[in-house]
Write a structure and sequence with these properties.
This protein is mainly α. It is globular. The longest helix has 41 residues. 37% of the residues are buried. The protein contains 17 helices and no strands. The chain folds into 2 domains: 191 residues, no CATH class; 270 residues, no CATH class. Helices cover 70% and strands 0% of the residues.
Length: 486
């Protein structure tokens, strides 16, 4: 069940009407109603997650129980050494026995066997048939943020298991984020929810925009991208460039579209999720891009990896290593392949190179209102260069194998001959147009404050037309979200 499927609309409407119309009609006691509401949302979240595989429910329940227990013990224990071992138990259990086994076991075993097989003539370790649970990296990081924050005494331990389990498994953001932390989400479970407080127009706009990004644009270009990436050696250099650019854009449309639908779904239930993307293709620097892209993951890595390592409070060389290592962890988090490891390392290298450049050529601080004739061309050059860096690295992110990635890169720079179809250009220009049109509109609305108010009656009157157009433009075959594999 994914957000763009009809089954999800049926499921969500059932949850929505049960939450806002059935519960208030049955219960008059606010505390009792809230308790039953949390139980209902928890059951709904587990049903949503187990719709892929019923066994996934046991895994997320195990992770939830471990961190709930650790959180309680951390709040009761005063001996720092014991508290440290409790935190270590949570880290090892989640990162090694849950995330490590299900996501990285076969990757590590394959890498080891590649080395040992020529030496001994046999595999050193067996390959196991392991099903990768959807969104395991998301709920693992989310749950870990809770135990780390309780250990740091930044938040109190949650004594109610139902509330904590709902925090871990809340279905709008369960399988692909945004990653929420306990400090931002748990207080929302204690505040009363009222139907009149729901921003329906904003929530519906989020969901429609996300649906358009994912189900129309992303799914439309997916076959083209898959065809080229499946056989980069047989396609023309222009086709490989198109695939590199479209591949990066597809990841953005797919993931930001999912995040928008998640935010809209949660908002309709009375909960607020953090923003995950902020017009990343307007960025003119590597650091600026990653501050706008997958913002909740980058915030998590900053708070729990970069800053504990010393952040920017250490010497210049160590700071650069911290930046590189944080991006390296991001690459490892994304997938159990050497292409993802290289992708994260490459982004870290570009991050460090940008830091070195800024040290050699520091930016002069001027009045923000000062304009120069070269500002627009300079912005355009920086934006295109930064986007090119992202698309170049995206070849490794999107390629099926390490060998395919290098064939793809080599084919571009050697101007390889091969196949290129007219529909590839059509998909490329069509999606590129909508990407930058959306960014231009978003820039005017969110960064320049030039949005206009639309009468509510007119907006709701247009929804049937919008839904009809979206339905006609949606491809017949639904494609799973790219980030479900993470």
């Amino acid at each position: 069940m994914i957000f763009s499927d009809f089954e999800y609309f049926v499921f969500f409407l059932f949850v929505f009407f049960t939450v806002w119309y059935l519960f208030p009609a049955i219960f008059s006691n606010q505390s009792r109603e809230t308790r039953i509401l949390h139980i209902f949302l928890l059951i709904s979240s587990y049903f949503f997650y187990m719709s892929w595989d019923y066994r996934f429910g046991a895994l997320i329940l195990l992770s939830t129980a471990i961190d709930y227990y650790v959180g309680l013990k951390l709040s009761q224990e005063t001996r720092e050494k014991v508290r440290y071992y409790l935190l270590l138990f949570s880290l090892i259990t989640n990162l090694v026995f849950i995330l490590g086994f299900f996501k990285y076991y076969n990757f590590l075993v394959t890498s080891i066997n590649t080395v040992t097989n020529p030496m001994f003539g046999a595999d050193a370790l067996p390959i196991l048939k392991i099903i990768l649970p959807a969104g395991i990296s998301f709920f693992t990081f989310q749950s870990l943020s809770y135990t780390i924050d309780v250990y740091r005494k930044e938040i109190p331990a949650e004594k109610d298991f139902i509330r904590f389990a709902l925090f871990v498994s809340f279905f709008p953001q369960l399988v692909a984020g945004p990653i929420v932390t306990a400090r931002t989400f748990m207080p929302q479970l204690y505040s009363p929810k009222k139907l009149e407080d729901i921003e329906f127009r904003v929530a519906i706009r989020f969901f429609i925009l996300g649906y358009f990004k994912k189900a129309v644009l992303s799914d439309m270009v997916a076959p083209t991208i898959d065809t080229i990436y499946a056989d980069p050696s047989g396609h023309h250099a222009y086709a490989l460039i198109i695939a590199a650019v479209l591949g990066g854009i597809q990841v953005y449309l797919d993931f930001s579209g999912y995040s928008d639908m998640a935010i809209g779904s949660a908002m309709l239930l009375g909960y607020k999720l953090p923003t995950n993307f902020n017009l990343p293709f307007l960025a003119t620097s590597v650091s600026g891009f990653w501050r706008r892209w997958h913002m909740t993951l980058n915030s998590w890595l900053r708070d729990y990896i970069y800053i504990p390592m010393g952040g920017s409070r250490v010497i210049s060389v160590r700071r650069k290593f911290n930046l590189w290592f944080t991006m390296f962890v991001s690459g490892v988090w994304h997938g159990a392949q050497w292409t993802f490891v290289f992708w994260g390392s490459l982004n870290g290298i570009f991050y460090v190179l940008e830091e070195i450049w800024r040290e050699w050529f520091p930016i002069k601080k001027e009045n923000a209102t000062t304009k120069h004739w070269y500002d627009a061309p300079l912005w355009l050059f920086q934006n295109l260069f930064n986007s090119s860096v992202f698309f170049f690295g995206g070849v490794f992110f999107r390629s099926l194998t390490w060998e395919n990635a290098w064939i793809h890169i080599r084919g571009i720079f050697t101007f390889q001959a091969g196949q290129i179809r007219p529909y590839m250009w059509k998909d490329f220009l069509w999606v590129l147009f909508f990407l930058y049109l959306g960014h231009a509109i978003g820039y005017l609305i969110f960064e320049k404050g030039k949005g206009k108010q639309i009468p509510a009656s007119l907006e709701f009157a247009l929804y049937p037309i919008v839904f009809l157009v979206l339905n006609l433009a949606t491809p017949e075959n639904s494609i799973p979200f790219i980030y479900f594999q993470f």
